[in-house]
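Annotated sample (chain length 557).
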Amino acid sequence: MTYPQAVQFLYDLRLFGLKLGLENTFKLAARAGNPQDRLRFIHVAGTNGKGSTCAMLESIYRAAGLRVGLFTSPHLVSFRERIQVNRQLISEKDVVRLLAHLREQSNAGVSPAQEAVGGCLSRGGHAAVEPQRSPMPSGRQEPCGLESRAPLDRRDACPTFFEFVTVMALKYFAEQNCDLAIWETGMGGRLDATNIVTPLASVITNIQFDHQKWLGNTLEEIAAEKAGIIKPGVPVITATDALEALEVIAKTAIERNAVMTLVNRPEPTPNSPLKKAPGEGTGTTTHADFRENLVGRVPSRGEHGVFEQVADPSQEGKQRITAPDSPLPSRGVVWDGLVDELALPLLGEHQRLNAALAVATARVLQNKIPVSDEAIRRGLETVQWPGRSQLVTTASGQTFLLDGAHNAAGAVALREAVCSGAIQRAIPDRSSVANAVRDLCRLVACSTLILGVLEDKDWQQICAALAPLAGRILLVPVPSERTAAPELLRDACARVNPAAQTIACPSLADALKQTANGPFVIITGSLYLVGEAMEWLELSPAPAAGERGLNEWTLKK
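Output written by the structure step:
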């Protein structure tokens, strides 16, 4: 198998679509020798900020001298971004080797007669597809490699792209003798393929609306799915500020005897993402809000445990949750002052909240993995995570802001970062827009917004949040089968910002041509779009095989 053949094999796995469930992943991991049993994990779930928080945790522990595996999704340009050790991408050679090995393992036990007609994973470098095959006399079709007999719809018994890649990452991290793996969920948590591990800590960044088709239509339902990563006796750290979602997480933590730490600023700051505009969430949330609103909503006594205030006056504003028969209280509501002192490369108050979450996690695990303040500081001040509030200034002085905001909450966070001045202050003096950065109105007037969104996202809310940021708005298709039509985005943006020039473009390449003389260009709405922009701007070399399409969950029928 060559690397292009390996990429094609991964493309073919998309036939088996998106499945939420752990059975296939457990089986494939068992065939691979259960590499997860030889590793330590920090498992990270949440609606937004998962990748950034993972990058921060990785950077902290690498600065402390550990060998750290990093598993994230989606990738921006290269598939190999998903699996890294000490921020070195997995090699093409290792991708080929591991795919070939796992394909053989997944087909182990398939009889010669079954192999002759093909299992789920054929030996020719492609995933076998046989939609025309007649069912077996028993009413069942030939099995794939993971089961001795499979139901008529045999796709359910075959590993999906994400299940396959999850086990591939586990095996690679074990081979690389990683001291720790930073482990990001793909979607949700409870039934996500990554949830076959038992971590040192479970981290839930926040709960917002996204992927409602799979996770539920209320914040409580979404929180229940993401809280599914909480394991018995394993600490959970969260920055969730939606009280209805936090209630679900807290109840789950109590039921599973998991010590919970809540990260939140003691007092709201003017530009904090916790301070929402009317209609944009649950409102400003402070320590006092949690004391007033959460106490009493979580069971206070009985079989589910106790939620109470800390009596120590020095711990004002903190609470603790104690589970039955457990002497371990939670660390309550915390904010580490170290976070406010940092020169954080990732811009925006939402990223500072992610940093606080990473620091709180390191503090919780201090007895298991000691980390000094210096390592925390060095890790956070050197963290790199492309495509998230990333500023790029070209030799000509043109400045681009690349951000993967792909849902309504992410769009609001990006808008807050721009309006608060966090982005403006980071624009270098050599930028052609440098003279305008002190005046937000001038910056908006000279800004161009290039926006592309997937149709299954809340694109109207995204347009409402971002359209006011620019005097010129170019709407483009996302390189995905699920793209929203640029014309729909154009009309939505025009309603919000009628003074702006709004143009529907046939492609990102066309939009970039139209902004050749624009001093400040914001490209956002989808990580898929940001990845395409990174190729056009030559920020990341495009693989010869073309790998951005692997982010699609399933082939279009």
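Annotation: The chain has two domains: 3-93+162-381, 390-539.
Annotation: Residues 128 and 191 are 25 Å apart (CA to CA).
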